[in-house]
What does this fold into?
Amino acid sequence: MTGEVWENFLTVLQQTLDLYRALLRLSIHKRDVLVAADASMLERMTKQEEVLVLQVARMENLRKPLTAQLAREYGVAPDDLTISKACELAPGPVSDRLTAIRKEFETVSDELVPLNRSNARLIEQALTFVNYNVNLLARNTAGTTYAPQGKTSQGAARVMIDQKA
It folds into this structure.
């Protein structure tokens, strides 16, 4: 029974790793889209990202009962059964596969975390730019003008939005 649980555990971890790799590829592409300010592509990518995150959550829901079962069988708390701890407890070939998965998770994570931070900064900069432009459009764009005999008057505000739409 434990062999089957280990295999299921490995399968779930491998599928989760594949999802994280897909998130990494998407984040790399997302950086280019953010720099290019391609709003429609960014929207499509955000939807793809949402799907991947939901799939990761589904994998996590599959992993939890397997972790609990392995923790029970080896007499450890489920929260203490990390991948590193599982590598120590697992039989030889399973331990080797777990070690490879753990290393790959670390590699993907080491690339994904700073990339996500960078993308977040790019998004913040884009939002600042958009807010600045909205504020410019919201101002009274006509401003003060000079009338005959040196008097000042307020010009009519320009309408920037078609109200018929």
In short: The mean pLDDT is 83. The chain has four helices and two strands. The chain has one domain: 2-141. The first strand starts at residue 144 and ends at 146.
